[in-house]
Fold these 3 entries.
Entry 1:
Amino acid sequence: MNLKPDEIAVGKENFNEAVGISRREFLQGSVAAAAVSGVGLGAAYFGYQQLKVNDPVRVGVIGTGDEGSVLIGAINPEYIDVVAISDIRPYNVHRAFHGDHSSPAALDARKGLMSVYDWKTEDEAKKHVKVYTDYKELLADPNIEAVICALPLFLHKQVAMDAMAAGKHVLTEKLMAQTVMQCKEMARMAEEQNLYLATGHQRHYSVLYDNAVNLIKWGVLGEIHHIRAQWHRGNLPGGDSWQQPLPGGEKLADGKMVDEIKSQMNKFKKRIEDESDPARRAQYKLLFAQYEAWNNDRDIDPTQYGYNDFTIKNRQGQDRQISAMEELCRWRLWDRTGGGLMAELGSHQLDAASIFISALRADGKKAHPLTVHATGGRHLFGYDRDADDHVYCMFEFPGSGYDPSFDVGYYDNVTNWPPAGKGVPSYNDDPHKKVVVTYSSINGNGYGGYGEVVMGSKGTLVLEREKDVMLYKNGVSADTKLSVKKGADGPTMDTQASGGGSKAAAVANTTSAGPVSRGYTEEIEHWAACIRNPGPENKPKCHPEVAMADAVIALTARLAMQRSNQGKGGYVEFKEEWFDVHSDATPEKDLA
């Protein structure tokens, strides 16, 4: 389901015309301006097209693994000039240049530098891009103005602090850091050094999510009272996406030695020899080269880069040796190096929930939760990880009318949005006015996939996989057609029997070309635009205060789960000082 730049369709009707708003005219003008200026729709839509970037920001990418290569693939060369990369793994360096050929979807997300900058060979690319193993050597390069950090979570804080100490702006992958105190130290450093520190919660730059926010602001859903979010995956023992094969092979629990990477190399080597079709043969060569680079990871010593050999006990109390190579390749599984499901998956969707609830605020600030009740555990996996494979959380957020911060009301004339003194105020200082957010992330059963459901007193908004949005009239059945019309009291929703089985009114249009942007390109563009146009009025949407709040939410929920498993109860009340950059109060300290 793809968003057409100049319209947002509901059924067969144009949503903008149906509710009488001026957003269509705004987008049409923005798209026209974009065509003249050469910038993309994201710049026009989010309003940073006026921030000139005549000279692309010279960037070094530290960490070019799965997520780092996604960010490389999202780069707009008009904003970013990648002049260096740093990674300790030959596999990651290879993908940084050539892209990820493991599947069409992987290549679409991880295009590689040669594709992004239209370099024909790796030799040509390396004339433009220096390759470092030690990231500190990259930071010492005076030609580099800023860095993108996409390393394992436990390294975020140190690398970001080192980069800012070297005078570099930073965009770090989510979660901002492994503890709230680390986030605060990073935020303070950015403030002291007057540098831009952004964090990659890309939903802040999703046109799809922004339009969902507009529906909430316009009152189309009525009073928001519940949000349900989930990220369910069909990961099972023996087929876990976080448990990648180890270079050099590994001994399984039954004592059998396997080397899956070497086996793949041999498979594609034979296919190259046997294949007569030139196109298929070329593809097999690309895959062989990728697995060959992965196999070369066996020659590195991870203990030289902060990874450890250690011993864990299985459920029967037996020792199992974990190598530094396994900690490097499977860092998401371990408490020392990762943050589990809440940091890797939950942080994205709780950020989305807080974006929706923040839309109810009159002061424009990020909404903070009041309480969380959480539980979780390793229900399927045993001795091969620290990370839980099931987590369940229930949050209470302040809702519309909870306190004066949420005196936003519903707009009675969205043509003049945002209104000047218009709308029906909803604030009544009622402590019972809360929004309950439930979140589950599980392995072992992928039913339902991932997405968010926003429920209001008038309607329900369903967002699936950052691609599709459906709008429902209240709790109507899937065979009901919905339309949005502007009435005397503002936007309203009508339903009628459709007979055609239309499950919902689509907020996005399926006829436009190209996929819906997930926001990676836009977050990088805006960060670069702020660097080129410094000033207090220009800052990334996910600046330290926002990113730290996301970390507080995710990490506190994880602490609540740990307390539940320790028999201390999984209920925690949030403290506002945890969200204050300049306070030393943190959940990890207060809940110890």
Entry 2:
Amino acid sequence: MDQCISDPDLRMISERLGSEWRKLATHLGLRAAEIDRIVMDDPGQTENQIISMLVKWRHQQSTSTDQRDVLCTALMEIGRRDIVEDLIEISGLQGPVTFEDLQQEIIDNYKQTATTIPAHPTLQSCQVGIEEFFVPLNLIKNIPSKNKSERLVTLTEGERLLDITETISLNSLDELLNPEVVKEIKVLLYGGVGTGKSTLLVQIANSSITLSSKPLLGRFELVLLIKLRQMQQSSCVLDAIFDQILAQNTKLTKNIVKGFIDDHESRTALLLDGVDQIPSHVLQSEEGVYRVQDILRNRVLTKSFVLVTTRPHMVESVLGCNPKFAQVETTGFNPQARDQFIRLNLPDDADMGEALVLYLKTNQHLWEMSKVPIISQMMYLVWKNQKSLPERMTELFAKFAEVLFIRRYEEMGDHHMMSTMMSTMMSIMMSIIDDLGRVALQGLQDSSGERLMFDETEFQDCQSALAEGCRVGFVQRETFTCGLDVKVLVTFPHKSIQEYFAACHLVKLLQDDVNNFRHHLEQIGEGNVLAMENLLRFCCGRSRQAAGLILDHIREMQGDKQELQGLARLSLLESGSEELATKLVRPTEVFCKSNEDLRSLSYYLQHVTPLEDTYFHIRMRKQELTILKGILLSDGMKSARWIEVVYYLSEQEGEELSLLEETLGVVDEQLYVTCMVYIEAKSWFDVEHVSNSCVRMQEQKLIRRLGLCMIQRSPDEVVDLLKALEGCRLEVLALYYINLHARLGDVSHITSSLTHLLLHACRLVDDVMKDLISILPAGHGLEVLALDGNAFSLDAVRALTCHLQGLPKLRHLRLCNIGLNAECIRQVVSENLPHLKKTNKGEFQKPKKTPTKS
């Protein structure tokens, strides 16, 4: 009898079902003729017809049939779960499902939704496998009740010490989900836009597909991932479970699911993604079971593990509900994880991935920004499609801002606005950027010093822009204590974002009033112009009129000519205006230390007449060989006086020195070219390949002078390479952090041609001094000797300097940090080498009468 449906149950169903009874009859297996007969026997009385149909169906069931299962299934198939729930509540019916059915439905959902993540920030349909592409994040947990006043910041009222909570690093998802480590079963995970919070929760859900999987510590029987931004009508998590996780035709009901959760409360993990994205009126709703607000306040599911994510501006609001939340911040990737992420996403072309990694290492502000996963994602997508990042930094930052803004509407699901009102959206975005940029500029040009952190009150004239900026990710709000004061402070995700917004505002001022623009420009002088590099470059990229005024300002400025000329070339590149090249001072010496420097030099050389008697110092890596080749072939280099190329071997196996040979092969033989090859700790190199390339470059007269630098390599690697280079005229040898104790004599293979010998921190002590003296016989042409970071006695220094009297060309000696008093060293050097004058502590140099090439 327990399996049968009672007459009162049938009466309740007949009162609720209405015109859908025919559909239910069909799902219960009644034939069309049977349904028609019921209608004919009792025309016009719907409830009676329903009762007749249900009674007929019940009579047709065998005694072994579970009528409850059949009827509840049919009702849910026609979308009447509400009747099933009422039936359960009135009759005590348990329903046709088990706890294992709930688990399986969740797993089935996660197999569809939690095994992939977006491969594109604004194209959700483009997905990749999470197991292959998830990279661990940098997770920092605050230690409660342990504060230190160590963060000194500059605010409008002056410098202030902020109370900063001490932290520990969480090394894995295991630790994040382990109450013994985080010390609570309620965790607040916060971080700026695109720092990987949502992806991390998807990875947790994916791990739960196997309930005993290690990342979940085998603790949880239910793992429920709820995207709060999708809760537009109700704050009831039970509703969200049915809307987001369970199948549309599920046999489960809300009462059943609630019962299962209540029974397994301590073995349930609830993942609430994006509490900052749920509409406020929904969050404050008073209706529903397991309301989000009640969960945050620990009024329900008090024994469940709850992980909530948010952007920083909502942290205080969540803690106001329950201050016992363990606070964990995700700062995105560490450098190693960022590099892994890039390489994973460029699997078909290892060289391309490696080139982007190396490019970021030579571009400080992009290197910092790329630790934010969404920024790193944008970079590799551009790099993958264009095989480079835009030459103009402004283009890249404009795209970043646009993607962050569009992503906000993607999250809101407002596809209609995106497709029909793009120009309006961009206008709104620029208005927000201009409002935020006003404060950003005030911070950069503050008379008391640059400010990167702002009091919330500084945005009182643009509160709506601040609120939207927080939601989009343009800025973030955090609360700090400062003594007895509580301060709500605003920061930009990165200084370069602040500089871009400030430049957008400054260009807007130029459009309105050129004198206002000039006023701000005049505040940039010799003392702060280099600190304002990004601001000026962004202005040049936003407006050619601004670029012309800025280049005039740089040309008239006093200061380090090389630095100012480098800034002018970067600003010219950013402007994209070849006509402005004439505003630059023609240089006599050029230093290129980064990819940007090379690109700006290449652009400049395309639009000027040849530079006469100019020295070029170029540091570069494999990915910049194409740029170097264009520079060497340009007409502007025809009259160069000297070109020094410092080449860093990459970490990837390959014949890259052959490419360097090919590149240097385009140089006119009349040009004076030198080459210094750097082999760093992680550089890949083959002794035969390196030695053969060096010999060929000299034999083919591609270069006039060759140098070699090795850093943190084994002594055997050093000795093997120097033996292979014995027939090569090596003029510069620099060895850093290599243990040459008792091995110094092995470098004698190439010392006859050396003009520069630098042995930094090579564990040299007194007993190697004889070897050093022996490889530098009297009359040797050595010009520079550096022994920094080793350990010598004063007697050893005296013996060395006495011997160096026999080296007529010696003009530079460095003995820094060798364990001796600097004054004692000076006295010995002055006595034995009086032609060398002290320039810095431990450094001595022959005064220059005329400039020399070296």
Entry 3:
Amino acid sequence: MTGGNQRLDALAATVEQLRSDLALAQESTDARALIGIATGILVERGHGGPTEAAQHLESLAEASRVPLLELAADVVNAASGDAVTDVLPPAAVNADPHGAPGAVLRLRAAEAGSLSSDPQSAAEALLDQALAPLGADSLALWAAGQDGALVLAGHAGFPRGEAERWRYVPPGVGTLAQQVLTERKPRWYGSLPAGALGIGQRRRGGARAVLPAESAGRILGVLEVCWPHPQPPLTPATTRQLDALADLCAHTLPGADLGGHHTDSHPDDAMNALGDLADGLLDPALVLRPLIDAQDAVSDFRIAHTNAHFTDLAGRPRSTVTGMSLLEAYPLTAREGGLYEHVQRVHATGEPFRSERMALGALVDDVPLSTVASVGMARFGDSVLLTWRVESETVRLAELLQHAQRLGRIGGFEESVVSRQVIWNSQLFSLFGLPPSSSPVPLERLHRHAHPDDSVAIGRFLRTLLHHRHSASTSFRLQRADGVVRHIRIVAEPVTGPAGQLVAVRGAYQDVSSQHWTEVALAATRDRLADSEQQSAERNRLALQLQQAIMPPSPPAVDTAGLRVAVRYRPAEEGHLVGGDWYDAVVLPSNKVMLAVGDVAGHGIKAATGMVVLRNALRGLAATGAGPAQLLGWLNSVAHHLTDQVTATAVCGIYDPGTRQLRWARAGHPPPVLVRGGEATALPLPGGILLGAMPEAPYEEHLVTLEADDRLLMYTDGLIERRDLSVQQSLEHLLSIAQEPAPELDKYLDRLLTHSRSDTDDDTCLIGVHLR
């Protein structure tokens, strides 16, 4: 047992030694590559051949007492002038106080490790040389595929099983790397958000940087760097360093060799093949080649080829447009129409683009010209193929017709009598609930798809159309295979030949189900409305009969003890506005005269029945000999407790012929009007709220002594109320009419009703009292 353990320990030691030797060999390889680059720079600067330059580099390192590898990094950094040079300020180039290589040395060593064009080796070199000193513990290098797919080209720091699970990411998964590929800009996460998708997603809480790997304006992949713990926001220096690493990764990914700076050279074989492809298209096509600026970015696209079907928007010949840049040829389209942005995106991501309607613009003699076209573009190698098709008037009219048929749920058909061929448009298959691949239904078999009760109507339609050769139409219920029943209207006309023979039938089906059910609903609504109107008219008739039975328009005048009382009642002109206005003038057992008017709130049968209850209750209570204030108090209790929430206003007066005194009280009602000596005045109002508002309410009494030839008016608000005037203004108008002289009381009251300016079409009660 002990011997077995010893053998296992020896085997583990051997594996560890081999791993160390392999890492050392890799570092030696990277170091030799970096020293080789520096030696090549010295050869270019005239320091002899490779041997002399290498010796010169070693002598410089000895003289400056700087490690040879760090000196090689300084030489490469000073001569390159690339993105790595600008990663950190010059102070950052030197080694740190602990003897570790500086940041730029790490980047140059990582760059040397990526020269093998092996993404896996490059990923391992980047993690060991450049990212581990920054605290990162793993990275993934993704190569961009078609339509947003990703392939794991290299990785470091992840378990083998994790890498295998994420070897390929289909389009539309929505990983962090795919989001960056779509947005074309880097993302930084101080801690991995919940629900984030991507490699290493089980490492919750760690930081992550996701950057596009771009070369010559093309995004060839994505670099994803992971930290084991949350991190603060990146410093500008670290951000620049990560950008430089992403650019280094782009050179190791597939397609990097297609992004060279050869846009101004003669067309190569790939270019010729793409031109042949464009010439084979029936739509206008452009082949666009990127123009790369000094910062290795796409500044524009050159129109390298136009096919034979190309038609310039501004009317220029092909030879003029070919060779121009896209921004030069179409500045309006490139900047305002969004076309240039889409070309950039397709070239960068490789994801095709298509739009059915895009505005294209051009300048014709400095006048902007705009048109609408369907546009498509795709990347082929380092070029972009752009095609468009300008909408013609015929196409627009056809689309408009199809759109109108869809909105109107109309489908057209044509049926040949000679060949028996039936042609349907696409909308008609949808109406019948049939797939587009099914056979159209000929007219002779239409009854098989209709309700049996509609067969007679369909037969009459076919006889008119086919035998009498006249245009015809009918409606039927379509029974579809999916169980849905639709109401269809068919309209058709015959097509005859030169000799008058029937050649074909043309027509259209329309789904009128919505209209049918709307008509059914309207008919039911009309029936219910008619019933409601009849019931309402009946209630109004009953209310009017009840009101007229109790409140005749001109009852007999009361004439007792020198007091003449006349009454006028004017009902509402509209029957449905029958209200609860009431009056009463009666001689009590004590020979006193009770005068009262009131107005129950509302209209209709409820107001009329409420009026009957209050009027009869007041007449019965008045027989007790109580005063008007007490009577209104009792009447308030009746309205509140013994009716169905009836509220009303009222004026009640008790006239004593012996003393000629009138004691009166009111419950929220307009004041009586006293006419004396040719002058009309409104009596001061005693306190008192409307009837039925409260269970118990106090009411005040006022006393007025009548003189010979005085006239007293008691009325409801239907006499004076107007929508455009206040109550006070309406009352002043009544006073101006009331003070005019009149010989007889009856004619006097008729004149007041005639000159009344009320516009509310409400009931009106008017009591006139004349003391002789």
